[in-house]
Amino acid sequence: MQGTNKPLILLYTGNGKGKTTAAMGQLMRAFGHGAKCAVAQFIKDDPEKLDIGEYRTAKTLGVAWKNFGCGFTWEGDNDKVNAELAKKGWEQVKRWISTGAFEMIVLDEFTYALSLGYLDTEQVCIWIEDHKGKNDFPHLVITGRDAPPRLLAIADMVSEIVEIKHHLTRTGRKSEAMIEF
Ligand code: ATP
Ligand code: MG
């Protein structure tokens, strides 16, 4: 592995399309340098069931990948289940970080776990601040809309993706393989 610099918190937020794909591109770049990589997805349901392309690729490469969500928060009991799973997901991420097993971890749609109050933003940010200086802390790539200001403050890089136009808006076109999943 070439990258021996201090770990970075990279955050992709905003309403435009491209946050998750940016994170996956970052992971692909790191993987190419021999980095051990992991993905924790919040909110999103089983990627096997949903036939997610980036998940398939990650599995082929041997990237660790776990989901901690059950889908849209406004459907049925999902909000409650997503909240419980988000807590488990954050515990998993902390274990991954503490064992030093990975050099890059993607926390996809993680901002929702904070903005929806599933996790305490202050506690999460304090934990990251307290551990970031330790040996083997990985680069964290975080995605999701409405990133809380406290998270913006601890991130080293924040890109806000602004929607100029989107092909699914007012076209009747549905989400499709290769483009959306
Ligand atoms: P992608 O996964 O393509 O990088 P994203 O992570 O930025 O997109 P999310 O906010 O996580 O987008 O939304 C999930 C899905 O909703 C994506 O498949 C994306 O294409 C779609 N999407 C994102 N922005 C819009 C929009 N403005 N209108 C309709 N669909 C959108
Ligand atoms: Mg996304």
UniProtKB/TrEMBL annotation:
The keyword Ribosomal protein does not apply. It catalyses: 2 cob(II)yrinate a,c diamide + reduced [electron-transfer flavoprotein] + 2 ATP = 2 adenosylcob(III)yrinate a,c-diamide + 2 triphosphate + oxidized [electron-transfer flavoprotein] + 3 H(+); 2 cob(II)alamin + reduced [electron-transfer flavoprotein] + 2 ATP = 2 adenosylcob(III)alamin + 2 triphosphate + oxidized [electron-transfer flavoprotein] + 3 H(+). Keywords: Transferase. One of its GO terms (biological process) is cobalamin biosynthetic process. GO terms for molecular function: ATP binding; corrinoid adenosyltransferase activity. Pfam families: CobA_CobO_BtuR (PF02572). Pathway: Cofactor biosynthesis; adenosylcobalamin biosynthesis; adenosylcobalamin from cob(II)yrinate a,c-diamide: step 2/7. Required for both de novo synthesis of the corrin ring for the assimilation of exogenous corrinoids. Participates in the adenosylation of a variety of incomplete and complete corrinoids. This is corrinoid adenosyltransferase. The lineage of its organism: Bacteria, Pseudomonadati, Spirochaetota, Spirochaetia, Spirochaetales.
